[in-house]
Write a structure and sequence with these properties.
Oligomer: single chain
Strand order of the largest sheet: 1-3-2-4-6-5-7
CATH superfamily: Uracil-DNA glycosylase-like domain
Strand content: 5-15%
Number of strands: 7
Low-confidence stretches: 198-214
Radius of gyration: 16 Å
Helix content: 40-55%
Number of helices: 10
Shape: globular
Amino acid sequence: MTDKKRQLEELKKELESKAGRLPLIKKPTDVIFGEGKYNAKIMFIGEAGGYWEAKLRRPFVGNAGKLLDQLIKSVGLKRNEVYISNVVKARPPENRDPLAEEIEAFRPYLDKEIEIVDPKIIVTLGRFSMNKFLPGEYISQVHGQGRFVDFNGKRFIVIPMYHPAAGLRNGRIMTELKKDFQKISKFLEDELEPVEETVKEKKQESQQEQLKIL
């Protein structure tokens, strides 16, 4: 077992051990941990799990997940070649938006996941994961734009994108998603230059301001 894989498994076990002490996690099987290539160059971060994610304990396995798989395939990659996770590691009731306190409670675990995987590119899916790295931005204005982001002592290329679920609801957003995904390989191969941006952790007030933005 590689060191990164071992660290991720230990992190998952640590999260499961906090059942009853973290929001949304009443028992260990409520945890929906990240999955994929443990040393992936590309990491996708969504917001939280839904019905199928909670049932299978895997991120992005419902209808939005099927679309994500198709989008990943469209740029010549396979799901097992990337790493996929969420801001909140459990399913909020009735698939509601995650609360600020829930995002904060799971923040150390997502931060550690990012540290372990250490990707070159982080693709944020939806406003909640975007706000972690680009607080105060509007996804309708910055989607598909790569940014250099200094986060927890390291530099990443962050590409904000709409959440696949939004693409399923809106044809225009679906078109934008497909276009934005084509940029991933260009950023990976340094064919596109990200914009300079130095951002630390997202402020909670920015989360509240963005609640009505896709």
